[in-house]
């Protein structure tokens, strides 16, 4: 229930304060160094902050927060946007990455899914197909 203006006037909500995008995603890891290696070496992400229990990695608009946790191997539920899911698949297969789904057409374009070094499921989708929705 809106509180309105505390001085008794009418109040009109705008879209201010509503979500604009997903700023970052949190991924659990049992071994921060190994995870940083996976995301930086294989996915080209840059470490922009590092502490004992977490690290922040970035590549273009993608930001990942790796957090040390005893609960890993989760389905993250998110998709990273890539130029070509087939090229990503080839690249990561050559590095021994385990894939859950080979590239195929999904509801928002061609996607694939794979496991990181902690067994977390990560998906990648053709960002151009997603952009065409908007």
Give the CATH level 1 class: Alpha Beta
Structural class: alpha/beta
What would the average pLDDT be, to the nearest integer? 91
Distance between the termini: 32 Å
CATH topology: 2,3-Dihydroxybiphenyl 1,2-Dioxygenase, domain 1
Beta strand count: 8
Q: What is the domain tally? A: 1
Beta percentage is 35-45%
Poorly predicted sequence stretches spanning 5 or more consecutive residues: none
Q: Strand order within the widest sheet?
A: 1-4-3-2
Largest sheet: 4 strands, mixed
Give the helix level as a range of percent: 10-25%
The CATH homologous superfamily: 2,3-Dihydroxybiphenyl 1,2-Dioxygenase, domain 1
Second CATH tier, the architecture: Roll
Number of helical stretches of at least 4 residues? 3
What is the ordering of alpha helices and beta strands?
Answer: EHEEEEHEEEH
What's the alpha carbon Rg, rounded to whole Å? 19 Å
Q: What gross morphology would you assign? A: globular
Q: Which helices and strands appear, and what pairs or packs with what?
A:
Blueprint: E1 25-29, H1 32-42, E2 46-50, E3 54-59, E4 62-68, E5 75-82, H2 85-94, E6 99-106, E7 109-115, E8 121-126, H3 127-132
Parallel strand pairs: 1-4, 5-8
Antiparallel strand pairs: 2-3, 3-4, 6-7, 7-8
């Amino acid at each position: 229930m809106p509180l309105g203006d505390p001085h008794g006037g009418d109040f009109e909500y705008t879209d201010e304060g509503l979500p604009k995008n997903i700023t970052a995603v949190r991924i659990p890891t049992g071994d921060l160094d190994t995870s940083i290696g996976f995301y930086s070496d294989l996915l080209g992400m840059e470490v922009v902050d590092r502490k004992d229990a977490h690290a922040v990695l970035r590549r273009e608009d993608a930001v990942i927060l790796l957090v040390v946790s005893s609960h890993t191997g989760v389905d993250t539920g998110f998709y990273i946007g890539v130029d070509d899911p087939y090229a990503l698949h080839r690249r990561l297969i050559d590095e021994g990455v385990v894939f859950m789904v080979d590239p195929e057409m999904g509801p928002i374009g061609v996607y694939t899914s794979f496991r990181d070094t902690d067994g977390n499921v990560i998906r990648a989708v053709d960002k151009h197909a997603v952009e065409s929705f908007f």
